[in-house]
Amino acid sequence: MLPAVSRNAAFTGMRTLSPHIARTSVRCFGSLSSVLRGPNEMRPIASIPDDIARELANSHPVPMRHEFADNPQKITTDVLEKMDIGLGSHHVPTSFSDKLAFRLVKLLRILPDTYFRDDHYMRSVMLETIAAVPGMVGAMQRHLRSLRKMTHDGGFISHLLHEAENERMHLMIWMKCLQPNAWNRLLVLGAQGVFFNAYFLGYMISPRLCHRIAGYLEEEAVISYTHFLDAIDKGIIENKKAPQIALEYYNLHPEASVRDVVVAVRADEALHRDANHLFSDVFSSKQVNLRDQIKEQAEKQGSADEALRECAK
Ligand SMILES: [Fe+2]
Ligand SMILES: [Fe+2]
Q: How far is the CA of 136 from the centre of ligand 2 (A)?
């Protein structure tokens, strides 16, 4: 039993604490409910300064693959079908850490296979919410490392940020095709909480292992999108018109269908697969300056591409 003075102090403390706890709880539950319900109503804000407005207006997500980014013509179904993405490409695990990464990813695949089965749209949404994490975590940790070491990063940050943005664009595209229910939104919240923290800690310990895990995750993404295509081809999923956001992002022809979008997204996943396996190899070799290597390679090959020969820091 507390003495009277202490009890009074405790009650006073609780009274002053209670409104704070109440406000915090409302904020927490408010933000949780906004995640479950989707975006809130808009509130007016102060006018946006010119420099910020111009910078925001001129910032657009740019595709990663040259077929989409550098092509002045609209991309046709034929062009999409002929893209060489190394379908079925697989990094054979030989070292212990590679085998660990491979087994872990195969184990993780059981969850979506069991839960989503043939719900390809929802599986794609879930996949993209996870796939957009490694690039951001890797870029953040490379950024912090560059600050600590007070040296250039060697090329990882910009690529990994671009990968994260590319994955987020995949998500934005699929969100035009379905709206996840509250339960699936809660699932995304939980999966992100677990995966972000696990990948963050893992990247601190072994970037090589984490890039290998990301490489195998991308191999699985290519397989999942191939199953999505099969379902469309068999008529199990209707081949609807592609959402406008996908036409604009990939520069697709105006009559493009969801099938075309799946082919384009799968091509991106193949690029992420190759990039992450390459990065894992680069970390194994301890030569972690990609820019120097690109310059050297371009000079050796006598490349006419000035961007490759310069490869500025
Ligand atoms: Fe993706
Ligand atoms: Fe990916």
A: 12
